[in-house]
Amino acid sequence: MTGRIQMFKPWFEAAEHEALRQPLETGWVGPGPKVKEFEQRFAQYVGAQHAVALNSATAALHLAMLVSEVKDREVLTTPMTFVSTNHAILYAGGRPVFCDVEADTLNIDPREVERRITPQTRALVVVHYAGHPCAMDELVGIARRHRLTLIEDAAQACGGTYGGRKLGSIGDIGCFSFESKKNLSTGDGGMFTTDDDRVAERVRKLRWMGISSGTWDRFNNGHPGRAWEYEVEEVGFKYGMNDLAAALGLVQLGKLGRANALRRRVVERYREALEGVEGIELLDQRAYGQSAHYAMIIKADERDALSDYLAAHEIESAVHFYPNHLLPIYQPYAARLPVVEAEWKRILTIPLYPHLAAEAQERVIACIQSFAAERAAGRAVPQAAGL
After folding, report:
1. Which domain holds residue 247?
2. Active site includes 182?
3. Which of 182, 205, 255, 299 is catalytic?
């Protein structure tokens, strides 16, 4: 088998193509009935009272920070995430406080969270790294004891569970990503989930410029002649999802269980084949939950060399993520985090998506095994020559 093996790849089939037909034919492609249906079905799926569809997880995180009132307050967070998580804190005028992670999962360490709480701490944001659930019982307990708003960044974790509950429904707020490579993809998009009626109402207004009701609602509430009538009580944003994205989302939600099961099968094969390979270490999978398996991340003693080796064999790989606290923008909030600073230099993301062909996966496995064997042989030769 030849050809480049992508690291991520969205899984769109004929049903997604067909789903776009109705909004295109009706001419209503903005926020409308498809968005409403997607919100209702997603809330039911996750187990939340409310789901508010948005144009990105970044928007969801920003609104989560705003409604959590973090301005001039501290937010406990992880550096092992895409910068959106922590940019959202800055957007809302908060101060990120970086916590170290568990070496075996790379999720935020509850002991570090507890240690860094101060009277200025307002919220805690946790990221389910690569789709694997954080230690939510401990984190929920910490948040409740210290009266912190608990925000789940479930951008990488759609469909994952903790103790039988869907990730994104355990904290006070859940934030999801439907970006092109995610488990559930709408090309781009996001969702905000909560059980709080007042928070949900406010977020619905904030996503559409602070306007009291959406355009679809005003033109379809029985009084289209007065559709210009609305209120604006605070400055909002243009963060809403459109019906094209929602139409895709409805199809993707319907096949999410199947997609995640296929991801899990790929991960199980990787783990079987790479367990015990010299210089390669696998992240832990805790028994308290089920990962969404967004990404397959390994640790490699010679990470950069392995990445180059894979590239030479037309296999994509990358690093997720460069620790945020080491980026220039976050230097005012820098902290010494020894676990992150050691472990991130070893992590490497290798190809994973539901429809990754078995032949392609075996190429990836064989390439990693070959690299390890060549390195081991190279180290053995000088030793033998000196005997």
Report:
1. 14-255
2. yes
3. 182
